[in-house]
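Record format v2
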Amino acid sequence: MATVKLTKVGKVYEGPQGSAVRAVEEVDLAIADGEFCVLVGPSGCGKSTTLRMIAGLEEISEGVLEIDGRKVNDVPAKDRDIAFVFQNYALYPHLTVAENIAFGLETRRTHRSALVAAVSGASGARADESARIRERVAEVSRTLGLDPLLARYPRELSGGQRQRVAVGRAIARDPKVFLFDEPLSNLDARLRIETRTELRMLHRRLAATIVYVTHDQEEAMTLADRLVVMHKGRVQQNASAQECYERPANRFVAGFIGTPPMNIVDGRAEAGVFTANGVGLPVAPSIGACPCAAGFRPDRVRLTAPNSTGSVAATVAAVERLGDRTDIALDSVWGRVIARLDADLAAHVREGDAVGFTFEATHAHFFEPGECGKRMN
Amino acid sequence: MASPPPRNTSAIGSLLRRALAFVAAVLVIAAFGRVIYRTATAGSTAPGEIELTVMHWSGDGGQEEDKIVEDALAEFEKANPGVRVKRLNPGDAGSFYTKLQTMMAAGEAPDVFYVGYERIANFASLDLLRPIDDFIERENAARAAGDAGALDLDAFYPQTVDAFRFDGARVGSGTLYGIPKDFTTVGFYYNKDLFRKAGLAFPSNDWTWDDYIAAARALGALESPDGERITGSEFVTWPVMVRTYLRTEGGEAIDDGLSAIRIAEPGAVAALERLRAWRHDEEHTLTSGKSKIATGASVFLGGKVGMAGPFGRWVVPSYRNIPKPGEPGGFEWDFAPLPRGSAAANCVLTVSWSMARDTPHPEESWKLIKWLTSAKSQADNARLGLAIPTMRAVAESDAFLDATLPPANNRGYLDAIPEAVVIGWPSDPTFEQILGSTMDQGLKTGDLTIAGALDEFDAKWRTHVEFVPGGIAPEPVNWTLFAWIGLALLGLVLAAIAGLLLRAPGGRNARGEERAGFLFASPWVIGFLLFMAFPILLSLVLSMTNWKGIGPLSGADWVGTDNYAQLLARDGSFHTSFRVTLYYALIAVPIGQLLALLAAVVMMQKVRGISFFRAAWYLPSVLAGVGISILWRWIFDSEGGLLNRVLDLVGISGPEWFGKDAAWAGPPAFALMSFWLVGGSMMVYLAGLQQIPRDLYEAAEIDGAGPVRRFFRVTLPMLSPVILFNLIMAVIGSFQVFTQAFVMTGGEPGDLTRFYVLYLFNKAFELYDMGYASAMAWMLLVIVLVLTAVILRTSARVVYYESLRK
Amino acid sequence: MKRSPLWNALLWFVLVMGTAAFVFPLWWMAVVSLETPERAEAAVTGSAGLSLVPPNPQFGNYAEAIRETGSTPWMGFVDALANSIVVTVLVVIGTVLSSSAVGYAFARLRFRGRTPVFLVMLGTMMLPGQVTMIPLFLLFREFGWIDSILPLVVPAFFGNAFFIFMYRQFIAQIPESLVEAARVDGLGHLAIWWRIILPLCRPVTAICAVFTFIGTWNDFLAPLIYLHSDESATLAVALNGFKNQYGGLEDVHLLMALSVLTMIPCIVLFIAAQKTFVEGLARGAVKG
């Protein structure tokens, strides 16, 4: 197993007429041995490009990539000792499951050709190697429960089975680093959650270094030892999942991590009061007088009676009952605000009701203005 | 819909498949073994052993001639240890010359081969034959020294020897280029039984054309036992026979240089007009007006034609297979020399054994020629009846005059000798070709009047003779210049590639990928430069030369655009070939594409077993080639052909496709054949139809469109790019018709089925006009490009490109 | 959608009549090839009615036709058959290998100049072969290749524009990730082409191979120009030579027999590959 280190890594595509498109900029990232690192962000954020640069499928335009302390910028993919699991699994359709799993081992065998081996008198060594490959395939298929599928072709497998074969193919080679590119996005929701758990367990068992790309922040949070949130080609935050949730580094991370997303309202803080569109609520006085954005997660929103002081007047626009809790969309002068309440507390709320709301000031986040405004508190 | 096949049939299927694969593998291995073995052993003559290649034909002589030569060569090998003889026999005289000339063009002429007297001037002037006067002198000296085995030219009929002398301008005197192996005079073969039945006297050796036509009419009035009409006579209109016929009417005048042969003498016109009238105005007098595919000697065999000719002695071996009178299909027959008109005339047709200019073994070749023309060989040949020995003594011996086998009138051939002359031919074979095609049009198809045909001949021959590309003293081609231009172009290409390589190197991966890209694309790029770009440019240069195709390129002269001017302005045969091709294309392409589209629509129907029908309709396309062409040659036979018989069933009297109706029915016949091969286009349309999304049809149906409307509003627009593709390919293909025409008609009658590429092939590989043919090739390229551009331009508004932009 | 019975009847009529028109001439050819000389002659001259089955099949006709092919008894046919097989097999192998490789380059490998080269290649599809016929003849003569199979075989190894296009279109549809997976698994471009692309291209390869086989087997002009000696002739040339020697009415049974013989490999191949080939073509396995 190995460490992966990116220093100021960037990717520049040549556009038409010499223009340049910067897909990834100045990514610094140090992934420890055995760490499960998830790159997450909306589509087009550069996470896949970053992953593919680590894999060697994309050229690195700028910066340095090290695997296990060795600079590998110019090392071709096949010599980086990595395994890659593709979104569509990329199983070879003309090979059986067993052959797919063995493929990477076969291409790396020392005694390539039976004929050459026979001529050079190394047929014994070749046979040993073949036995080792068979053994390894058997081992992997046992681990993943693929035994009954070994003789089948990819087209005869279900989506989940294919996904497992793809993982099996990656494991078989026992690489230094596993790279996953949205491996679960082609599965249905239920299977996705199951497989997520399996992956987590597998990671623990293999103690492998994993770099994992997904656009699904929930998946990212459940899997990650380290969460790297990316947007517009840049790393927005690089921290544990918990920290990203509790102390988002900027407004983008705050809006991206967590479901339903954090409510963020543009306004002004002054003397312990946050005011937006002429309506203010008290907050912690640590913020100086300046324009800023206040963020508060839906579960920190409290409903009050309409027109009660210290609250913002609102109308209930939609009620989504999720069983143990209820999400309520509120329209107010602060715009659309989502509140998440325990189901029993929200039992009487109806769409069209006039209410008021407030939020727990101690759990509010403040950001500088702008899309990626920095955290202020 | 169709239920899955039961298990056991699929097991049998897989077993069959495996057996088939096994057989195929065995065949392939055996084939490679055979070819490798042959290549390894070929040319491995033992030390001191040499190999001579001998080429001959066996046309009307059939297998007998093949056997004669084979045996003579075997004996020669036995008598001359150390000499091995390889024998080639491409079939009839026509294919013999095609092959000989391609071999000569390739610089691989056989050592010893037949040359007909009519080609001597041509071959000698092209410097392809080795003069043999030095050998004759040696033989004369040897004879003077008492060698009885020495060859004595005085023992030969003088006309036959003189036929192979050429002085640089005309045949008859000068350098000797071959020893005549045999010869013949010509006349008519007649069916004695039919003559008796018609109450006619047998022809005498000095009968006249009046006697002839009277007999033909009387015979034409007869009926055969099975109730069919007898035809009076077959009269072939080969150029040499026409010219001999004219001589009997004193109608042909030739000037000294052979530059003009004035056939349009009043006597000639009258004689030809008579012949034309016999053919076309009378119904059962002459057969050749009704073009049976088997015109020529074989029509006589069936016993339903009273006379056949003018033929030489060569038909005798096959006529001797006619059963004896009394046996089924048998009858008695004999020979009568050519009838007299205002004059007595006959021709000497003779073939020599000659040797190639560049033979590496002239001594052995001469030995072989002597062997093949010796008294003994001639006597052997004579016994098989094939021809008249060229040695007077052998001709007068029992070997030839033997009366135990028909024809009884062997004397008839010899009696004609005094009045028989060698018909002189210009050294340019185009003369014979033009005469043949115009006479065909005048006499055979009748689409020209005699006067018209003669004018046509005159005009064509004159344009041909007067066409001296490059003028009187053309400059040699400046090959150095073109070599530099070529190198400069190559340099440009290389520079462009180098520029690409030098500019902005990408990353390591990208460079690796690029290197791989160049590597993988290189086969096509190299192939393109070597097998396309270079040849196209070379062909452009060649098209402006008078290169003959024989000998090195350095012998070619620069003629500028003369070839093109001649093609466009004057070459009537070219105009005909273009017209024929265009006529064919105008029928074959639109109707063919329509049929293919309709067939594809039919194939889209969900019917049980539709895949069987698909396969059946497609099957002929898989087989297209020589075999299919042979099959269709018989299908189009005007008398018994399958097609005309089917037409008869529905009450249509089919045309004589490749006979007198060829002017209008010839190209459509080929088009008809091409309709049989629409399977390929059908499949492309079918693929296109299958890719049209079903929901479009469903949407159209919901919108209330009926099947017809759906076809025009959904199918056609969605299919239009496929139609365009097929259309362009079909147009290009229609200008490339070759195999069918070559095999089925050879361009005849006249030039009426001489398709563009066939004419190109004739010019390049048979008439030694590679420069001219290159100009034709370039014109073809221009025509195809223009047609494609026109189609693309006019279709732009109609074709729905959305589905192309995938 | 239900078809009306009338429409159905019409459809069947068209199907059956069409099949008769397409298949009957071939059947007739086979019948004539099995007749006695007299009956064959009568059949083609129309003096006897059509018989759909020869009453007394003369299989000896085939032996005789084989014996009389070329100028050496038996071996003439054997050589022609061997030549046709060798030429065809080599041309098929060459075309498949080169066209798929070039198609792979155009579909998957980024290199400068790819688009212009590809467009030029598409343009060459419209080039009539006759334009290069004479210079190529000259070129091969300079190489000393006349009367060998090389002029027929070697160009096949440089790709065929039509099939390159077919391969390119097909390879472009193969997911990029398969190629990337192979790269991660340690394959170079050559190995990717050989071990991943070629196996996946089987539908195109089948069509390319069958088309090439049929085209080469039936090709006449090129062998006519390049092959001169009897031993190096292909079946098509040998058949034409046979026609020139046995073109007469009295030998029509032999001519038909040899014609049928030369077609058998194509028929067998067609039937064997029918499923993959015809259905593949019809389904548009190759999108154009």
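The first helix of chain A runs from residue 47 to 55.
The first strand of chain A starts at residue 4 and ends at 14.
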